[in-house]
Amino acid sequence: MSHAPQPLGAPAVRREGRAKVTGAARYAAERGLPGCLYAWPVPATVPSGRVTAIRTVDALAHPGVHSVLTHDNAPRLAEPDDPILAVLQDDRVPHRGWPVALVVADSLASARAGADALHITYETTPHDVLLTENHPGLYTPEQANGGYPAVRERGDFDRAFEASPVRVDVTYTLQPLHNHPMEPHASTAHWSPAGHLTVHDSSQGATKVRDSLAAAFGIGTDRVTAVSEHVGGGFGSKGTPRPQAVLAAMAALHTGHPVELALPRRQMPALVGHRAPTVQRVRLGADADGTLTSVAQEIITHTSRVKEFVEQAAVPARVMYGSPHSRTTHRVTALDVPSPSWMRAPGEAPGMYALESAMDELAAELGVDPVELRLRNDPADEPDSGKPFSSRGLAACLREGAERFGWAGRDPAPGVRREGARLLGTGVASATYPVYASAAHASAHAAPDGTYRIAVNATDIGTGARTVLAQIAAEVLGAPLDDVAIDIGDSDLPDAPLAGGSSGTASWGWAVHKAASGLAERLAARGEPLPVEGVTVTVDTTEETAEESPYARHAFGAHFAEVAVDTRTGEVRVRRMLGVFAAGRILNSRTARSQFIGGMTMGIGMALTEGSTLDPVHGDFTECDLASYHVPVCADVAAVDAHWIEEDDPHLNPMGSKGIGEIGIVGAAAALGNAFRHATGARVRTLPLTPDRVLTHLA
Fold this sequence. Notes:
Elements lengths: L16 H6 L14 E7 L5 E7 L1 H5 L3 E5 L22 E2 L5 E7 L2 H9 L2 E6 L26 E4 L2 H7 L2 E9 L11 E6 L5 E5 L4 H12 L6 E4 L15 H13 L3 E4 L5 H4 L6 E9 L5 E13 L20 E11 L12 H19 L3 H7 L17 H12 L11 E3 L2 E13 L6 E6 L5 E4 L9 H13 L6 E4 L16 H22 L9 E6 L1 H5 L7 E13 L5 E11 L6 H21 L24 H4 L1 E7 L22 H13 L5 E2 L3 H8 L1
Parallel strand pairs: 1-12, 8-25, 10-11, 14-15, 19-20, 23-24
Antiparallel strand pairs: 1-5, 2-4, 2-6, 3-5, 7-15, 8-13, 9-10, 9-12, 13-14, 16-17, 17-22, 18-19, 18-21, 22-23
Helix pairs in contact: 8-16, 11-12, 14-16
């Protein structure tokens, strides 16, 4: 039975929610295909070198073991579109954890036991895994990630900085961070007798998985189907295909059976990417009234020897605050480390931590309120491009957040609020994230019974994409939400980009809006009942998304945080946290709030608990599982709240929306770090704020 239409923006309940909480939703490693075998990857145990021999006889003799794939017998691949997918093709070991064998068995336990029975010998070569400020291998790349120029200069920074009456020159360091989604990276692959490959993959984009597998196996995309029906989180690490999809497909081809492969949690840090460590020097020059005269942010980071990946951490400084003189640079060195990759708000999350921490330090030098300092330097046009902003809600977020948080009663003096052994402090930081949209295809179908079906190869990674896309279509069609069905997560559907860059809803929604609008027009023009097969409209948004906007388009936000620092134990606790965001039109208030709070929670982890180190001797991440890499749990989060201001921005897409998946983490760690400084008077410029580090500074 149809219900009344729900307007776009209403808190519609997620369509797949019941299926997930009851276990009916099936993930990539839960297909239960007849005759399925199970694979266990074997990682290299040296940091650099080559495999000299793999003795498989004991593994093959183990009960249940079917096959062992190595570089000697694995199917040959064409050149993949991503070098990290060229697995088991030669004897090289570019970093510790690189797959050197794959054991396939009739049970997961047998596959793991077979892997333990392998005897592998190596020839090692000298290795280097440590990023330093003066590393001899540092170079300036042509571009940072996202196609941004690695270097941008405006005016004469050196002269302006030296002439500034108030200056801040500080360096912040961030350790590697890991995505660790709840569902590990997993794939189930099988080949049909006719040579068609179907892969159920835990991915943020099935179209990209299809294309990459087709390239790797040298076959047409029409012979590959990638399915990502339900995905248990990704946070960027599933944005591009990962080795487990190729390994599962290779094993299925080799054995003639379906093969399931779920990466063991301890192997994920080496295989699925990580947020690269950064050393960030920030220099701010200002007049006595707090007006910025010069801004510089210089980034040092690492990449792997497999491929270049340059964290674009200086890019947000080109957007945030007005100043006539600016320098933003990136330098990188290739080390014997796993390839870094995308992690929620790449560039913005680490870059804004440093910039917003430096702004807090400048406020302290000036004796100016940190909120007021940001308001004084809020530009009307984007500093880097000179384009006017399509909308810029930063000032509104800061003012609204300050009012809701009770900022006006804050004593600016550090280290004066105390509850027993605990010092209390509050901090603020700004947030920004760019607006992206890519071309997508979608179809809209009307059936004679008055129902509709939308098809687009979007991916729901836990964000509620199914629900929001149905709301977009229902509003355009003027139909009850329950009358609109959604098909997503299958590369046989109309092509669509991945869920990443906070661009998914904008990209898919634009195509869905266009398809539904075309269908509504066609239905309105008909003077007769629908045929039994119904009516379908298929569209793409290639032309619309290719147009360059005359506006700078960004979402903005403001974080406010209060922390308590135990002077006996060094423990830092979040007492309360508030985020206020300006992200265009909010399409579903329920799922949007969840996304904002989820990002803020990741910011808590970045600030207080999450950190990873590379062992200089063994070349691996020492924090490689959830026992040693500490993500926030419910007890760490306490009172976290999110609000937003409504923006009417006609320069974005037909929905008037901006991405919200990532801006919640941007600036969150800086707000907490600034609150720590206010509580204690000590400035810690390395995250996370773990008790050992905190006690050193308190002493």
